[in-house]
Known about the structure:
Layout: H1 9-19, E1 28-29, H2 30-37, H3 41-53, E2 57-60, E3 63-66, H4 68-89, H5 95-105, H6 111-120
Antiparallel strand pairs: 1-3, 2-3
Helix pairs in contact: 1-2, 1-3, 1-4, 2-3, 4-5, 4-6
Bound molecules: zinc ion (2 copies).
Residues 81, 85, 99, 102 line the site of one zinc ion.
Amino acid sequence: MEALAHLRRRQIEALTAIANRSLLPAGVPLSLVAHSMRISPPSALGHLRILESMGLVTRRGGKTRLTPRGWLTFREYERHHRLAESLFASLGWKARDACRAAREIDLALTHTTVERLCDTQGHPRLCPHGRPISPCLPHRTSGR
Length: 144
Ligand SMILES: [Zn+2]
Ligand SMILES: [Zn+2]
């Protein structure tokens, strides 16, 4: 099964918090992850431990970094989210509303469905916010 299918919303938030601070070379301190998730450090740590057990992050000296597999999963998530956004936007919804609705379904979509969405929508290159959608690969497989 795809790593994405095992993640819960909170763990995606943690993954995103780390990915967005990837310029910190030593990794992201727990307090920053907790702050951006608006939860306590012990709660954030619980989510980081789950990500670590899945091989998506490594933790050292209280700081967390994404592994290559973590990056792959994060990029995959972005692709699911942005293609779902594009779908709602194609119904005439504003970007903000499309984003909110996309969050309700993006984790649940299988790769097969995402590829069909991409195909049906003519392989959009940008989401409604103007952020890039990575190109589709016919037989894309994330680590299992
Ligand atoms: Zn969004
Ligand atoms: Zn495509």
